[in-house]
Task: structure prediction
Amino acid sequence: MTRIMIYGIGGKMGANVISAIDGSDATLVCGVDKLADESKFSVPVYRCAKDVKEDVDVIVDFSRPDAIDDILSYALSRSCAVVIATTGYSSEQLAVINEASKRIPVFMASNFSLGINLLIMLARKAARLLGLNYDVEIVEQHHNMKVDAPSGTAATIADAIAKEYEDGKIFEYGRHEHNKRRDVREMGIHSIRGGTVVGKHDVMFMGKDEVITLAHEASSRMVFAVGAVRAAIFVSTRGAGMWGMDDMLALD
Result:
């Protein structure tokens, strides 16, 4: 049974991860959250990871980028794995995460939905087949509380597609800074924020007289929580290194 700590247990995703753990091959042993009401949880909840007393196999992180130092400090000191589901990290923070993965297992993904990872696979295949004859545009929609833009998922989709072109792609964000004709190597990435949209991503391949659209929409956060718990169970038995959805799904 994989012993899980939820970092950010008091948030909306924390509640979903708790539900996803129930009935899985994992158990929740504690949580960390600066603002959570400890009395509302059946497990100990701490203000920072360094105060955790329980034995933990994996930290599942749904918090904020500024928590990464506390998370990695604990994980490195206890030699436990980390599932990082937070996005919006700086290049310096990503370098710290990569360095930590040399000593502990780190599972990192911008989106833990099985459906969105299938979309990425299909988008890559479409890019290979259609080539430069089709322009590519990505539109992502999220709730009005989301901080980072574009979404980490949109960035992951764009990077995956760009690798299918010999010379890569030039990312254009919103196009508000330039008044010019579209370059054949451009890939537009557009962000919409509003309401309570959980997450929607559209990838459009636009050619002469036709448009092919691949779309994914999450109707609840539970799909991400289920994927994160699966990732926690998977990475708990791996060695040090950087792991991702491709690694996990390859074994299914």
